[in-house]
Write a structure and sequence with these properties.
The chain is mostly helical. The chain is built from eleven helices and seven strands. The protein has a three-stranded antiparallel β-sheet.
C-alpha cells in the first residue's frame, strides 16, 4: 500500500553532516524565536476557542478535544495548510506514527498505510501549488529552495519535499500533543499541584519545564552506530541498532533533586533533555513551550475546577517505547 505513495527519503531526522544542515536550515528559520512568537497569538486564539468548548460542554476527553487539535492547527499554520485540511493532515500523521511506533495487526497496517498515502498526496498537492504560487509559509520556502527559479520540480524533489513535510508534521504535533496531554494529566492527578498553579499563575513557566522534564514526550529514539565504539563498557560495531533512552537523564538523581517527584515549584532552569541535544536537537522548542504555557494559563484561568472524571478509568499511557502520552484524558469542569 505504501508503494502507491511517496517513497522514503532522508529527512532532518535520518541525515547527518551537510545533508542534515541543508534540511535543517529552513526549519531553523521557520521555527526561530521571533517567528514562533509571531504565530503564538494565533495559537492562543485557537486554544481559547477550544477551552471555551470544554467549558460549555462541562466535560471532555482532552486528548481529542484539545491536545490533538491545538498543535495540529499551529503546525498547519507554520507549514501553510488550509485549516480545512488540518484534520486530515493530523489524522494521517498519527497513522504514520502508529506504523512507526505501535504494533498493529496486518489489516490495521494496511488501513494505516492508506491514510499515510492520502496524507502524502495532500502534501504533494501543496508542494506543487506553492512552487507555482508561493506564499509566506514554510511549504513555499521549501518548494522554492528545491529547484532553481523557473524550473519545475522533478519526481525526486517532490518525494524529498513530501518526506520532509510529513516528518515535520509528525514531529510538530505528535510531540506537542503528548506534552500537553501528559502535563495536564500529572497536574490534575495531584490536586495540590493543580490548585497551587491556579492560585499562582507565576508558576506557569516552572510548570512548563517540569512537564518537559518529568515525562518527556519523546522518551527514546532509534539510532545506528556509524563506527565501532565502546559504550558503557560494551563494544559495538558500526551499523549496530540502538534504542537510546535519553529521557532517563531527566530522572537522574545526581542532576535533579527528588527526580522522581513531579513538582512545579522546582526551579525552571531548563536543565533537561526533553528536546534532545546537539545537532539533532528539536528545532522547535520555543513553539512547543509556548503552546504548553498558554494552555496552562487558559485552563487554570478559565477552569480552576477542572478535574479528572472519577467515573472514568484512570488514564492509560500509549503502548510505545518512544512517545509518552495518555490514550485518553477524561475531565469534568
Amino acid at each position: 500500500m505504501l508503494a502507491r505513495g511517496f517513497g522514503p527519503r532522508q529527512t532532518i531526522v535520518s541525515s547527518d553532516g551537510a545533508v542534515h544542515r541543508r534540511h535543517r536550515a529552513p526549519l531553523n528559520r521557520a521555527l526561530s524565536t521571533a517567528r514562533s512568537a509571531a504565530v503564538l497569538p494565533y495559537a492562543r486564539e485557537c486554544a481559547r476557542e477550544l477551552v471555551a468548548r470544554v467549558a460549555e460542554a462541562g466535560s471532555a476527553e482532552l486528548v481529542e478535544a484539545y491536545a490533538r487539535k491545538l498543535p495540529g492547527l499551529v503546525v498547519g499554520r507554520v507549514i501553510g495548510l488550509d485549516p480545512a485540511d488540518v484534520p486530515a493532515a493530523v489524522h494521517g500523521g498519527y497513522r504514520a506514527g502508529e506504523l512507526l511506533f505501535r504494533p498493529l495487526a496486518p489489516q490495521e497496517q494496511v488501513a494505516a498505510a492508506e491514510d499515510v498515502v492520502a496524507l502524502q498526496q495532500l502534501l504533494d498537492g501543496y508542494v506543487r501549488e506553492r512552487r507555482a504560487r508561493p506564499r509566506e509559509d514554510l511549504c513555499s520556502d521549501l518548494a522554492a529552495a528545491a529547484a532553481p527559479p523557473g524550473a519545475g520540480l522533478g519526481e525526486e524533489q517532490r518525494h524529498e519535499l513530501v518526506a520532509h513535510l510529513q516528518n515535520l508534521l509528525i514531529a510538530g504535533f505528535l510531540t506537542t500533543s503528548a506534552l500537553i496531554a501528559t502535563t495536564l494529566m500529572h497536574l490534575l492527578a495531584d490536586r495540590r499541584q493543580w490548585e497551587l498553579l491556579c492560585a499562582d499563575p507565576g508558576l506557569v513557566p516552572a510548570a512548563v519545564e517540569e512537564g518537559l522534564r518529568f515525562d518527556s514526550a519523546v522518551q527514546a529514539f532509534r539510532q545506528v552506530t556509524t563506527r565501532p565504539l565502546e559504550l558503557a563498557g560494551t563494544r559495538l560495531p558500526a551499523g549496530a541498532a540502538l534504542l537510546v533512552a535519553y529521557a532517563s537523564a531527566n530522572r537522574d538523581g545526581r542532576r535533579h533533586e527528588e527526580a522522581g517527584v513531579f513538582d512545579i515549584r522546582r526551579a525552571a532552569n531548563g536543565r533537561h533533555l526533553a528536546f534532545g541535544h546537539g545537532a539533532h536537537a528539536c528545532p522547535g522548542p520555543h513553539l512547543a513551550r509556548g503552546q504548553l504555557r498558554l494552555t496552562l494559563e487558559l485552563f487554570t484561568g478559565a477552569l480552576p475546577g477542572l478535574r479528572l472524571d472519577a467515573a472514568r478509568p484512570a488514564p492509560r499511557m500509549r503502548p510505545t517505547l518512544v512517545h509518552r502520552s495518555p490514550e485518553a484524558l477524561y475531565v469534568t469542569c
